[in-house]
Amino acid sequence: MTASTLSARVRGGPNAPTGPLADALHRVWWTVMLRGIAALLFGIVVLAWPGLAFATLLVMFGVFCLADGVIGIWAAISGGSDHRWLQLVWALVSVGAGLATLLVPGVTALALLFYIGAWAVTSGVLQIVSAIQLRREIEGEWLLMLNGLLAVVFGLLLFARPGAGAMAIVTILGVFAIASGVALILLGWRARSFLHAATSGEQQRKSARA
Q: How far is Cα 88 from Cα 101, in angstroms, rounded to an integer?
């Protein structure tokens, strides 16, 4: 039985809407949760130590983006979805932001601000597009939509207020990372629950027929 068939039975029978994105999400749900945990930890550290040196914040953001991107690339390759390009582009954007942050020498605070803003808006738009495609396939797609909207709003805030104080920017970054992490963790957990419930139901039906 395929993951898409399982998700259909969970959602409301074999005629329920399913598709390749839902199928892929069910296979790599744990990578979504892992990305969420990374974002959550990053946000907590940023808020817990707001006085971090600029160089330290730079390295932390770069490492976070690289980790997020590598996990995303693996998920896109392993998911097997016809729409894997969305996941792949999202992941490559994160990798690009991470490399630009870590490898460009002497990056200024303003440049870092625009790196983060561009990364947030681009990844947010890609998540919104993915959520729109998922809305007819699984329940809980609103979590991905919410995460995308948060990213876009966060990025636009950075572009609109480049002169905001360092403390304000760090606080916004931390809050965004935590909210994004929670949304991704809930989305991954929901996908896992769908698959687990469907698998259990199928095993019960097989036992009943035996």
A: 20
Could you give the CA distance from residue 39 to residue 165 in angstroms, rounded to a whole number? Answer: 23
Query: Amino acid identity of 22?
Result: A
What the block records as the tokens of 100 is 């630009």
Q: Which two tokens stand for residue 143?
A: 């979590």
Q: Do 180 and 150 form a contact (C-beta atoms < 8 A)?
A: yes
Q: pTM of the full predicted structure? A: 0.70
Q: What is the pLDDT of residues 88-125, one digit of tens each?
A: 888 898 898 888 888 876 777 777 788 888 889 998 99
3-state secondary structure of 106: coil
Q: Cβ(98)–Cβ(63) under 8 Å?
A: yes
Contact residues for 165 (Cβ-Cβ < 8 A; gap 6+): none
